[in-house]
Specification:
The protein has 465 residues and is of the alpha/beta class.
Length: 465
């Protein structure tokens, strides 16, 4: 009997040994999540080869060409130079004598479509003020393409591209979207192809006021930072799980839409646009970015940017500023009118923005005020051509699209404005506007004045005064 038991034990050991030699099943290969579930369907409007001659040209990169010529066709800039440039066959020739040509203005801080006109509660969709941490919401899902503000920004302001941001109630307000300022039935028809998403963050008074008034965290600035840090700790852990999954396969981690956005930031795919006024708070946010391994692309409003302009330059961070809007709350109090030129003079990226449906129609005038204040203060090397960088090239840099627009450079998108006079004058207006080489506005042609469907048949339809 003992022999039989030993035999049975031996057989079992042999079988278990054979089983141990069998290869383990391989983990299932990783399935990559679609990172662009709401893709752009933008298609440029048709345009004709166009040549503008004898105009003063601000190229957008700080250069000025007198008696300049701009040639564009097939949606892109073909050439920029003097009167010797040849015209393509069949091109529309425009005499720009006494007029100015610039790249289209780019507004990096707008809420058009999310807070559209008319300003009623039913359409107030910019702040998901239910939790201080909402990176899962996307501004594009609130954009109303029929907002009459889009056409006003185009025809009064020469704005050809704009970033729509969530509001600043939350520490993490959600994703932004970059739009071409063209008529579209859907927001996807306006989305700038290939432009990276942004993440709106906020520091300072707004989050602590909104949630502190409800008896929730944050109630203080230290609460702002603590809650933001806790969120980034979770985001890094979430990214680690997905990195391991993509490398080894196996069971897919549980999706978290909020963490998806923060993971995109940590991967450098989503750009941080941080609402922040005070210099000390901007410095705190820079340190927090270094702690968790991401980069702040731009501080928005940045009323005290002049105090840390060297720090902004050293960290390659843009400051998105007003010319002289200040004093409406405590953190906006310590302003100087030379803020924009002082930041520029320090070698940092200076940008003029609106954050307002009226200011977006006059960003050229805002830049003009900042330029005049800088010159009066004796800040060197300022000119109108240099200041135009604050309106096109630098905003394009902050949006990650400078390789495609923002300057009048051969091969870039033909986003062009012909002004009826010096655009730094209060009396000048856009006369004609092209986006990707398609004429979207002509002040002298009533058929080229865009009107949204919402306005049709209503008093003031298409009024741009």
């Amino acid at each position: 009997m003992r022999a039989a038991a030993l035999a049975a034990l031996g057989a079992a050991l042999v079988l278990s040994g054979c089983a141990a030699l069998e290869p383990k099943p391989k983990p299932a290969p990783a399935v990559h999540v679609n990172e662009d579930p709401y893709p752009s369907t933008y298609a440029r409007y048709p345009g004709a080869p166009t040549v503008i001659r004898h105009a003063t040209v601000f190229s957008g990169d700080g250069q000025q060409i007198n008696d300049g010529t701009v040639v564009f066709a097939d949606g892109v800039i073909q050439a920029v130079g003097g009167p010797e440039l040849a015209s393509p066959a069949g091109a529309v020739e425009i005499d720009g004598t006494g007029k100015f040509v610039t790249p289209g203005i780019i507004d990096v801080h707008s809420h058009l479509g999310d807070y559209p006109s008319p300003g009623v509660t039913a359409n107030s969709d910019g702040n998901e003020a239910t939790d201080p941490v909402t990176p899962e919401v996307w501004a594009e899902h609130s954009v109303w393409p029929q907002d009459p503000g889009f056409s006003r920004a185009l025809v009064n302001g020469g704005v050809t591209t704009l970033q729509i941001l969530p509001g600043s109630a939350n520490l993490f307000g959600g994703r932004s979207v970059v739009l071409k300022n063209v008529p579209g039935r859907t927001v996807q028809e306006m989305k700038f192809p290939g432009a990276p998403y942004g993440l709106k963050m906020a520091c300072g008074e707004n989050p602590k006021r909104v949630y502190g008034s409800k008896g929730n965290m944050p109630q203080t600035r230290m609460g702002n930072i603590a809650l933001a840090r806790e969120t980034w700790v979770k985001a890094r852990d979430y990214k680690r799980k997905w990195d391991e999954y993509y490398a080894k396969g196996g069971d897919m981690p549980e999706r978290d839409l909020a963490m998806d956005t923060l993971k995109g930031v940590l991967e450098g795919k989503i750009l941080i646009h941080n609402h922040c006024y005070r210099a000390d708070e901007m410095a705190n946010m820079i340190d927090m970015a270094k702690e968790f391994g991401y980069h702040v692309t731009a501080f928005h409003h940045a009323v005290e940017a002049y105090k840390i302009a060297d720090l902004l330059a050293a960290n390659n961070i843009c400051a998105v500023m007003w010319a002289d809007w200040y004093g409406f709350k405590m953190e906006a109090y310590d302003a100087v009118k030379e803020n924009i030129p002082l930041v520029h003079n320090a070698g940092a990226c200076a940008i003029v923005h609106s954050d307002d449906p009226n200011y977006i129609q006059r960003l050229n005038q805002e830049a003009s005020k900042a330029l005049a204040d800088g010159i009066r203060a004796g800040i060197p090397n300022l000119s109108e051509a240099v200041a135009w960088q604050w309106l096109s090239a630098n905003p394009a840099k902050a949006l990650g699209i400078l390789d495609r627009t923002g300057t009048l450079t051969a091969g870039k998108m033909a986003d062009v404005v012909l002004w009826n006079g010096d655009p730094f004058s209060d009396y000048s207006r856009p006369e004609r506007v092209w986006i990707d080489g398609a004429e979207m506005y002509d002040a002298n042609n009533p058929k080229k004045r865009p009107v949204s469907d919402f306005e049709l048949g209503q008093p003031g339809e298409g009024d741009v005064k």
